[in-house]
């Protein structure tokens, strides 16, 4: 059990697609911080709510270890972490608290343009390149399809052209990257967006009240954005 703390700590992406909108959303909840944005740690001024600026991939682990109380991260990253834990027989440690309405994308299976897509069974025995092995394995099991999973941490979309894989399972927003690589979306495994991730159970110390206040403000801001 992590030690009691009297400040809330929220992990957000340092740069990338979610960093700036995450910070802006928290600022619109009335938070402000002392450090400049290139620092790793931002000390909360208006409220005792601090930010940790990190790589998005590290956010679920920081939550799991109790280093941070909340995180703003893509559902895809949060669910991949949970799927990998579940695959290893480990219980969930955090959950999605709110969808945040930005960073929208899909985790799609994409196949070569020349394929006539007939459904998931077509993937039987094929090699699928992805950065999301946990989510892909879970989906394949649900579809009762056996396929090879080729784990790549980046440049997944060129794997078919390189002969590393037959198809890919990757994040898609506009689809331009797929087109550039002679691929087309075939089926969506997950709809994703940025989410507020947090603990399974409410905090039993002062962070509980802080968290409630933050969520009330967040809900007000999100309602206005709709
Ligand atoms: P980091 O340096 O923090 O590891 P990254 O390169 O892994 O950054 P980004 O490319 O900034 O991450 O993507 C962060 C999140 O943005 C993704 O996990 C996803 O939830 C969301 N996203 C929205 N659209 C896209 C897209 N077209 N491609 C990739 N991610 C997208
Ligand atoms: Zn990342």
UniProtKB/TrEMBL annotation:
Pathway: Amino-acid biosynthesis; L-histidine biosynthesis; L-histidine from 5-phospho-alpha-D-ribose 1-diphosphate: step 1/9. GO terms for biological process: L-histidine biosynthetic process. The gene is hisG. Feedback inhibited by histidine. The keyword Magnesium applies. Its cofactor is Mg(2+). GO terms for molecular function: ATP binding; ATP phosphoribosyltransferase activity; magnesium ion binding. This is ATP phosphoribosyltransferase. Catalyzes the condensation of ATP and 5-phosphoribose 1-diphosphate to form N'-(5'-phosphoribosyl)-ATP (PR-ATP). Has a crucial role in the pathway because the rate of histidine biosynthesis seems to be controlled primarily by regulation of HisG enzymatic activity. It is an enzyme of class 2 (transferase). Its EC number is 2.4.2.17. GO terms for cellular component: cytoplasm. Residues 55-217 form the ATP phosphoribosyltransferase catalytic domain. It catalyses: 1-(5-phospho-beta-D-ribosyl)-ATP + diphosphate = 5-phospho-alpha-D-ribose 1-diphosphate + ATP. Keywords: Amino-acid biosynthesis, ATP-binding, Cytoplasm, Glycosyltransferase, Histidine biosynthesis, Magnesium, Metal-binding, Nucleotide-binding, Transferase. It is found in: Cytoplasm. Belongs to the ATP phosphoribosyltransferase family. Long subfamily.
